[in-house]
Amino acid sequence: MEGDTGYYEQQGGADVYAQHDVYEDAQYAMEDNGLHMTAFGAQNNPKAQDKHTITRGWEKFAFPKAVRLLHETDIKLKQKALLTISELLSTGEACVQLINAGVVAALTECLGAKKDETTRERAAADLEILIGVAGAKGGGQ
Questions:
Q1: Diameter of the chain measured on Cα atoms
Q2: How far, in Å, CA of 93 to CA of 99, rounded?
Q3: How far apart are CA 128 and CA 134, in angstroms?
Q4: Separation between Cα atoms, residue 120 and residue 92, nearest integer Å
């Protein structure tokens, strides 16, 4: 219907189609937007996380962060990054993103950790997972 400026609104528990002119619709939209912005602004900021916390967050940030943490001198951070990478290696898409982030070179570097056997073992396990998932998903076996 050309020129129809109505919308459904809640009245007494039922959706009712209401006709309003363009000015009223714009006014309601601005008020709703203002209420939404006020509610969003009233929320608390997220809690600060411990420096040893690795979150999946948005995946495009998680992959480079996990690889970057493999170069840390802090052994706990490095081991958490290895564990995170193990969990992220569950899909072919994640393997591709980790490879693009430089995980192969970083894991290879971890294999040479002289003082930390756990890091070496986890790096080897992660490379094995990577080869297995990439081989299975990539068609090469």
A1: 75
A2: 10
A3: 10
A4: 23
More confident residue, 7 or 91: 91
Q: Which residue has better confidence, 6 or 43?
A: 43
Nearest to 90 by CA among 132, 141, 140: 132
Provide the pLDDT for residue 62: 79
H helices of 42-116, in order, are 59-69, 75-88, 92-101, 103-110
Find, among 84, 99, 100, the residue nearest to 130 by Cα. Answer: 99
Indicate the pTM of the whole model: 0.55
Structure tokens at 58: 């948005």
Among residues 39, 7, 41, 38, the alpha carbon closest in space to that of 24 is found at: 7
State the Cα angle at 19 between 14 and 21, rounded to 5°.
145
**Tens of pLDDT, residues 82-118:** 998 998 887 777 788 889 899 999 999 999 888 889 9
